[in-house]
Amino acid sequence: SINITSVLExxxxxxxxxxxxxxxxxxxxxNASSKTIFSPVDGKAIANxxxxxxxxFDQVIKTAQSAFESWRLLxxxxxxxxxxxxGEELRVKKKALGALVSYEMGKSLQEGLGEVQEMIDxxxxxxxxxxxxxxxxxxxxxxRHRMYEQYHPLGLVGIISAFNFPVAVWSWNAALAWVCGDVxxxxxxxxxxxxxxxxxxxxxxxxxxxxxxxxxxxxxxxxREIGELMANDERVPLISATGSxxxxxxxxxxxxxxxxxxxxxxxxxxAIIISEHAxxxxxxxxxxxxxxxxxxxxxxxxxxLIIHESAYEEFKTKLSAAYAQLRIxxxxxxxxxxxPLIDKDAVQQYQNAIAKAKEQGAKILVEGGVLExxxxxxxxxxxxxxxxxxxxxxxxxxxxxxxxLYIMKYKTIEDAIALQNGVPQGLSSSxxxxxxxxxxxxxxxxxxDCGIAxxxxxxxxxxxxxxxGGEKETGxxxxxxxxxxxxxxxxxxxxxxxxxxxxxxxxxxxxx
Length: 512
Ligand code: NAD
Known about the structure:
By secondary structure, the chain is of the alpha/beta class. The chain has 13 helices and 25 strands.
């Protein structure tokens, strides 16, 4: 277990016994309300946090706008140097920040530390990127003309994030947006504001040490109303929103209404196909980690298993035996595999889903339930459950953010791919097979329709180097690696005439 008081001190979160964002002291002198944040690990209060008002929001926008004026003029590699220093500071604070992620959100300490490592990795990636914001040159059809394209900073980037990756999602967006010359306004999940304040303190320290306007990194703590304000505000050209599909539909509509740009990272309903050619020694741990890791609260959590009929009974037996060995409890104890859900609402949703699954005809393979008693005082610990179900059941079509796994049978690989694709969401997918034809078919244009498609690894645990995101109700956005940076910039095509006459494009004549 950790000493939370010293973690909060090391991260400089508390001032006057309440958590504050640095810099824009939006709480001061306004009607900001204070809310107590409880840990799902032990149910204890961690700290009181000031929540912003509409006036505070306006103030933050102005601070960001003014910071953008100077930040965009700093050469991209110099902006990269600031992000490099942020990565260094995160290395120093990794242990404390990782512990706070674990305690505030409820994921295992190893996953909390892993999340901070992801932040460090994306900083490294962004530093390299700061020298590689390439445009193209094209050959002009006109003589003595030069044509090329370049990328310019976009302006203010609004980041709305979910509770389950309370810090990494911010860094995926912010590190890239900063080297691209943008400034960021972050509205974290109202369920995990403390880790956000910790990140803001770390970023503010780096900015101050370099004499850079603090408004380059803005934080606004609030619930969905603040998110709605941001989505509707035309001063924020890009909204990057991570969360439920319900939220994404609202944000996408609001941003679309004003013809702004949105990057949506929404819910998943991820499946693994277990073929008759699967290596079950790989498949089993891949499935179990994917289904119960982070207590089923990853966007890439394995929610459906599509198993070949010839492997079905054997895999079912192995799966039940593996679930019987799972240890549920304090995520800060590394002997445990499964920690708590984020709060009691999430527990209620888990229970509702189990009731619906039964109603709709699903058969229990591993029974769920809420744990009580010693060590489970927060009321947020639940047992991972498995149901034998059919893909078309309404509950199977829906993402329940909890450790519930639905398993089903298939006969042909075409059927398996159709089942895998037969949900509204399109985030992550995987096939366990040693058969080359099957693997390639799954990855082909007639295969998985998801943004992520894996062979012989599970659905969760993406690397920062690739573009991350999904199709259909997952929202279509891509963040992190590859060329995801382009969404944070505006593209400009430039044509220069260095000749002494004015030939028109398409051979048009216009004689005067
Ligand atoms: P949520 O949708 O309840 O909240 C996410 C964020 O959106 C919060 O900051 C919230 O305040 C804000 N919000 C909610 N309604 C809003 C609105 N109408 N306008 C503006 N902002 C609004 O999600 P959650 O429970 O925090 O997170 C779990 C969900 O996030 C799951 O569906 C999960 O799959 C998804 N998720 C997706 C990804 C991805 O990359 N695809 C990553 C992490 C989480």
